[in-house]
What does this fold into?
Amino acid sequence: MTAAYLREEHHMFRYAFRKFLEKEAYPYFSQWEKQGIIPRAFWTKMGENGFLCPWVDETYGGLNADFAYSVVINEELEKVGSSMVGIGLHNDIAVPYIAAYGTEEQKQKWLPKCVSGEIITAIAMTEPGAGSDLAGISTTAIRDGSFYIVNGQKTFITNGIHADVVIVVCKTNPNAKPAHQGISLLVIERDTPGFTRGRKLEKVGLHAQDTAELFFTDAKVPAENLLGEEGKGFYYLMEKLQQERLVVAIAAQTAAEVMFDLTKRYVKQRTAFGQRISEFQTVQFRLAEMATEIALGRTFLDDVIEQHILGRDVVTIVSMAKWWITEMAKRVAAESMQLHGGYGYMEEYEIARRYRDIPVSAIYAGTNEIMKMIIAKNLDLV
Ligand SMILES: Cc1cc2nc3c(=O)[nH]c(=O)nc-3n(C[C@H](O)[C@H](O)[C@H](O)COP(=O)(O)OP(=O)(O)OC[C@H]3O[C@@H](n4cnc5c(N)ncnc54)[C@H](O)[C@@H]3O)c2cc1C
It folds into this structure.
C-alpha cells in the first residue's frame, strides 16, 4: 500500500532518482564512509539532475515541487546510508530558512546556487555549552555600522566542512529578557573574515556525514545578511524545526524498513540445528513484532506527512512521530543485529553500520526528551 500523497509522478521520480543513486552513490558509499565525507562532486551531480531543493520556486531555478518529492528523496538517500542525511539537511532544513525569511536580494543571491549545488548550506544552533536549551546560546552578533561582529563557537554542525553558507543562530541582544527574544539568524558565508572551521568530528556512526565545529572571532558579517527581523530568530526556528523533525522521522522509518528487509533475508538463508533459522517460532515472533511496529510507524508517519503537506499545525504529532519512530528504529536495529548473530557485528554486514548510525536520530533535531516535553506541554496538564 502506498501513501495517498504519492501520485504517479512521485513514483516516476522515485524510479529516476533510484537509478541515479545506483550509478552515482551505491558503488561509492563504502569508500565515502572510510574517507569520512561525501565528495562535493556528488552534490554537484545531485544539483545538475534536479535533486537538490526541487521545491524551490522556478524563479530561483527550482521546480516548484511539493513536499512529497522531498519525502521520496529523503527515503531513497536513507536507503543508500544514513550518512546521506546532510543532503536532506540542505534540501529541507537549511535552505527553507532562506526561502521563507530571506529578502528578494538574498533569495536571488543564494537560492539558485543552493539548487545547483554550487552552495552547500548548514544550520548552526548548537554550541559546546548549549544544545537543547537554545535560548542559552552565547554566540553574539553585535551591530557595528553596516556589519555585525560575531563572536562564539558552534559544534556538531552537519555539513560544517563543506558549507559555503551557514545560517548561524546568535544573540543580537544578549541582554534581552526573556533571552529568546534576543536571538536572530545571520547568514555567514565561507570567506567571511574571522570565520574558521575546526575539526571534522569523529563520530560513533554516520561516518561519511560531514560534522564539524565552527568558530567566529570578531567575524565581520554584512548587516544585509540578517535573515528576517532582528530578535525573531527563535520564532523562525520554532516554525521550521517541525519539518526538520519530520525529515528525521522519515529517515528513521526508512532505516527500520531497510533493517527489517536485511534481517528477513538473513534469517531465511542462515541455517542452524538442521533448519533455516526463520523456521524457529521465536525468530518468527520477533520478526512479526518488528513488522507490526514498522507498520504502525509507517501509518502514523504517512498521516503526519499528509497533514504537513496540507499546511496543518503538526507540532504535537511531529514530535510524537520523531520520538516514537526513532526509538522504534533503535529497537529494530538491536533485534536485527541479534538475529544476525556474530555476522551482525562484522563490518561487512550492512546491519553493523545501520546499528551504529541509528541512535543519533533520537538525539539530533531536538532530543526525544525534548519531544516529550513539547507533547506534554500541549496536553494542557497544568
Ligand atoms: C551527528 C550530529 C549532527 C548534528 N547536527 C547539527 C546541526 O547541523 N546543527 C545544529 O545546530 N546541531 C546539530 N547537532 C546537535 C544536536 O541537535 C544536539 O546534540 C541536541 O540538540 C542535544 O543537545 P546537547 O548535545 O547539547 O545535549 P544536552 O542539551 O546537553 O542534553 C543532554 C541530555 O539531557 C537531556 N535534557 C536536556 N534538557 C532536558 C530537560 N529540560 N528535561 C529532560 N531532559 C533534558 C537531553 O534530552 C539529553 O538526553 C548534531 C548532533 C549530532 C550528534
